[in-house]
User: Fold these one by one.
Assistant:
Number 1:
Amino acid sequence: MQADRPRHVGARVQRVEDTRLLSGTARYIDDIRLPNMLHLSFVRAQYAHAKILEIDTDGLADLAYPTIVFTGKDTAGIAVTAHQDFPEMQFSEQPVLAEDKVRFVGEPVAAVLADDPYDAEDAAELVFIDYDPLTVVGTMAQARDPEMPAIFDNWKGNIFIERQMKGGDLDAAKAEAAHVIRRTFYNQRQTGVPMECRGVVAEYDQASRVLTVWTSTQIPHLVRTYICEELGLPESRVRVVAPDVGGGFGVKGQVFVEEVLVPWLAMKTGRPVKWIEDRREHMMASIHARDHEHTLEAYVSAEGRLLGLKADISVDVGAYSTYPFTAAGDPGMAAKVMPGPYDFQAYEATFRALATNKCPLGTYRGVARPSAVFSLERLMDEIAAELGMDPFEIRLKNVIRDFPYKNVLGFTYDPGSYAESLEKARDLLAADIAEAARSKASSDTRIGVGCALFIEQGAHGTPDFTRRRVPIETGYIAARVEMEPDGEVIVDVGLQNHGQGHETVMAQVAADVLGVDPSNVYVRQGDTLTTPYSVGTWGSRGGPLGGGAVHEASKILAEKLRAIAGHLLQTDKEKIVLYGGKAQVDGAEDRFIEIRKLCRIALRNVDQLPEGMIPGLEAAYSLDGSADGTYANALHAAVVEIDIKTGKMKLRRFLAVEDCGTILNPLIVDGQVRGGIVQGIGSAMLEHFIYDEECQPLSTSFADYLMPLATEIPNIEVHHIETPTPRTPLGAKGLGEGGAIGPAAAIANAVADALGISVLKTPLNGNEIWRLATAIREGE
Amino acid sequence: MRPTPFEYHRAESLDHALALLAEFGEEGRPLGGGQSLVPMMNLRLARPAHLVDINGLPLDFIEVEGDVLRVGALVRHERYLKEKVIGERFAAFHDAVQWIGHPTIRSRGTIGGSIAHADPSAELPAVAMLYGATIIARSANGERRIAADDFFLGAYMTALEAGEMVVAVEFPLPPAHSAGAFMEISERRSDFATVSVGAQITFSGGSITGARIVATGVELQPIRAIPAEEALSGKPLSACEARAAGRAFAEGIDPISDNVASSEYRRSLAAELTSRAVEKACQRALEAGQE
Amino acid sequence: MQEIELEVNGVRRRLSVEPRRLLADVLRQEFGLSGVHIGCAQGACGCCTVHIEGVPRLSCLTFAVQCDGASIRTVESIGGVRAEHLLQEAFRSEHGLQCGYCTPGYIMTLVPFVSRMVEEARMPEDEEIREAMSGNICRCTGYHGIVAAVRKAIGDQMAASGGANHAG
């Protein structure tokens, strides 16, 4: 009925949040200032694994200003725990302040409070801790070594959990195979690095017994529930607010010990308490990511058909299990998504989470998928090389073409454009492929083209969570839509923006349904006081589920508006169209009533409502994903130029052909894709969080942890194919993480192409490229 | 990540600055651009009790006096790109400046700061050694002239004594028949070098008469590539056997190894960049000859 | 404590500061300028860039006492609360920002660059634009939108100043 009218969804709408971000008037966590506030500075563990013998705080007494100090003795019993409910799981508990032992460098040991942050930092230096160093478990091999001492007292070995996933008949696949190709792949430890560090401010109001916690988080409701459970507070009297969040990328998608401790300190001291993380703390003690080792064994027919796949997956998850996705999150995800976009029906994965004395592993854009895709897509190129096939040819031979497709683990994929994206990319890259081939004659400069085809499961529904048996049982997003007497719309949605532009997109969605302009829609998020309970923003669900929930709630309101309009215009409500601020009779544009007038009637002049209609304009909807979620797909391709003599690699071209279903706002979709890709390029070439043998962190500053700068990056080409999914109200699939998933694989494949060798690990920095080019260099 | 307390003193004159530095000894540090010192202070790796701000002093001169280019300690990096004499006479210097940090750092960082900080992979210490520059250090006790070759003692270690500060760097003007080039490999363009090599040659009648080659990233301070320098002597510009010179240098070194680069990689880069810098210098020499 | 006078966004004020206070902290705490962001406190990310005497400088590597008598500008003074500077408008239309945390630093770094290009009446290559912003880290946008915004701002500003001669 409204199909022929221009809509806001799908348009390149400029973001409404930009003005405050550009003008400096946005409000981030460090901008929260309260009267009489105490500033918190941590004393953090200097050893990776040590017994705490004594904590000496006497030095604080000599200071000219007052300080307050707390240690693990004061906070005993308060911890972050995140268990996976399987009998194989060994449990870890991270105390908010270390009690008897420290288990990674950077773990909080003492909390020092002062009126001024500089003073608090000075004071924290005066706390002396006497440690008895213990044997450090520093590598995956050490973690698997039964001779090594366990990091936790009641543990056997240092494996959090090891499990299996399987489907189909792998023995049969192996028996049928003409080729067995086995490789071990490794992705280095890295971290998400939002430009804004973490921070928490808490204030307890004795009069109302309300605790307010501001925290730079992606998951305000989950933080609230955790605080309440751990501190024994009613959820009705705890308000968690995420202000403007300066990047998250999954890093801010866990509940951290600091988020539990700071509220406790505010209640204990009776004063507001503020903690702003510094960059050094952030690098060594927020969360890390990747650090995956995968051994894959492919069973392939003589013609290049993938018959079966065996995977052995190890992840170094650090010292503690993180909330809510747990230590099992990354290995489990890698095992689950490994089958990817290819049609085969025999698979077996063994996957384990290994405990070491390193910063805990948590979620970072892509969560295990970048590593799984790296391994699988590298393997596809290895298979192609072994069989003498072209990388596009091997993929086109194996790619899934008929949808819906039930994969080897029982997940059913919604329609996608896997083969089309391969064909499109091959056309776009024709000149580069030819140039790369010509460069093979050179021992000075080589060009390589590599691609990575992948799918990104997003917007998954409750069953996908419950089967994991971790403290995140569901992933629905709730929205509440209200209209005011003047016709303005308030959308409260259980998301938390950290760059995605929710305020704009949610307004576009509501405006289309309600027939108003997006500028009349005020979107609120990130505050548990105003927004309905939801899991927050992660897992590529903001667009499909958040947008979907807003859409469905708006539809309920629209229905009511139409009923009122139909009554007033004396026509069937089905004939009423909401558009341009008017409720009009379809086909008779002069018969209309302004929507704001309908609002006034629904809320004030209720005597004009149809008989029996309840006053008010408020609707809520909680949208769960479909059981298997949505499967966005993308093809990433990289063209690299390698200086054989120096190992210097230049990224000449990077392109993406992506399909996220219905595009809600192309401006934002392209931004998400490009931003993710550049993070993925960092993963592929630069970013490496290094520990020494004693697990001392060596990458704690931006001089040591190298992220892509503008000078390292080409313009990123983004091409779209739109295959709407039937599984979400708007046809949108999850998209936010996809950009970060493909680059490591695409770039590694390009390097392998350029140098004609196997590439098995990242980062592909200067030294590594130089090493890989040795044969060519020395063959001259 | 905030500094420990210190007292701040704004130097009114060079003598005032030197008197303050003499008074504070090891506890005092001159503050110029602050692009190296302040990060160290924020990380609390440097904890000076006194900072003597020298930014107001008239040390931002670049002047040619006879055969010497004198560069005041407060000259900011971005200025070299605009100085005619550097573009025309100091090509390797000009090349090197483009590898220093990023624009905001280049607009603030100073030569005095870079030389005194002595980061093992910074460009300007290498440039000073390449041209056989003299570091002019002053203290309340007077002036010391220290050859760049003797100035850099290790990572962040120099011949400067407590109470002493760099006031200028003197670069001898290269002779008429000379040419140079500077090459660098770093992970990202604005990073400190993994390895960098500067080469400066003099020539006569189409042959190399002398060469000076300096590399960073091999040891914890810039080093001269003496075997390469010797190998080039007498070679024709058009066939200078740069590759052999690079190899001669690389064979005699045992480079450091760290998280950025292995010893083997550094050795290979030292050879390759020496070869490229020499080739570029020779090419520039030949081009100059054609004019 | 040391007595200093700063002119911040056109307003002169005397204040007493501890010498070790970073300019970034003083602008945030004493002047309430929340657009000054600290990303790394070691000069590697550009988030804290402000103008001192018209030149982009890192306020995390500058002590407030050093700025006695100086004129300082922060992002708040560039295009007002509506962010109406042509570069800010271009950031909006080209999607040059996402989470916004690094954005004020980019604006302060790039406003003088844009002005210089307009004065020189030339449209720089992408490489030159990328080099101009190589001291700033953006973790969200992949830089693409920022480069596009700079190009657009230069073009728009040249058009606005009547110089239709897009050289280069």
Number 2:
Amino acid sequence: MDKRTQILDIIRTVAGKDPSVAPDESLFDNGVLDSFGLQDLVTGLEKSFGVKIPDSDLTPRKFDSIERIEEYLQEHGK
Amino acid sequence: MAFLKAFGSYLPERVVTNDEIGARVGCDADWIRNVSGIDERRFAREDESVIDLALGAAQDCLERAKIKAADLGMILVASGSWDRQFPGPAASVANRLGLDATPSLDMPMASAGSLFGISLASRLCSSLGPILVIGAEKMSKVVEREPMERGVAILFGDGAGACLVHPSSGFARIVDCGLYSDGAYAEDLKLPFSSPLEMNGRSVILQASRKIPRAIAALLEQHRRRAADVAVFLMHQANQNLIARVAQALEVAEDKFYSNIKRFGNTSSASMLIAAAEWANANELRPGETLCFAAFGAGFHWGALLAEGSS
């Protein structure tokens, strides 16, 4: 499974619906995720990609879109 | 040694429903309930100040503790909504209690203020004597600053809570506390002097969802206790959904976290003590049982405190 598909699966699970947003669109401004969903998204990313996301990286901006999530994971070798 | 002797609270009479506040910021009652767990909150009268609210909680607490104000060694007042740069409300609260020389300290910390206050009191009371910790907020004045912001306006209410920390007796012995602060997030939740409260809600929720359970778990582990063995969690009443997340993270039932946010909203520094006062009025901590406080707020400041029922 490629990285984007994995990310979409996590978002789908957290949001409980298909994330109908473009990769560069905000997941929050488009109502896909709320504040609590963001926490679940981060937990899902940690589990699925085996990455430890420290508190200092927990800024909503870094996980605001599919592209930003991909960038974050890439920066951390995933 | 330090003990929790009694709690007290004061809530203004006026009930502000979700319908009322929702009409002012363009949202409906069900939405407010879904995102926060709040049905209503209390707003103080125009002529009721933070000092009046604090005094009400202080008197209630002293009555329950059966201690005279004159016997206090110190007063700590946490408030993030006090409306003057200085002096803060602490000296005036002491004055209204009839005291003219008792040291009184302001803690302008908002939501974590009461937790930090109890922790500080637990370390000072052996030398100063009984310490009254108060959290008092008139958040309605903050909420009503224009332009009113929906995410802020729906959350907050007014009220005050108090706790008497005693050096030699009480219903629970304070075991330990873990306090933390990280100024990297100071801009994510702040109240400038004359403009509206600014809150990056996503950041607050993200950090609080992680930091609160971590602080509780670290303290429990340090004292070889399990979350499942805690009789009651008395947490800052920020948002019911956050309380649920913290319970989930600790793998305990949500109803182990006493909650009154439905009726009083988020009263910032006052909320944990108002909840504690309500809980203590209806429940008893048996000898050896563990009580756990936790709070998180602007700063960010956060932490947890354990107490154990006295024999």
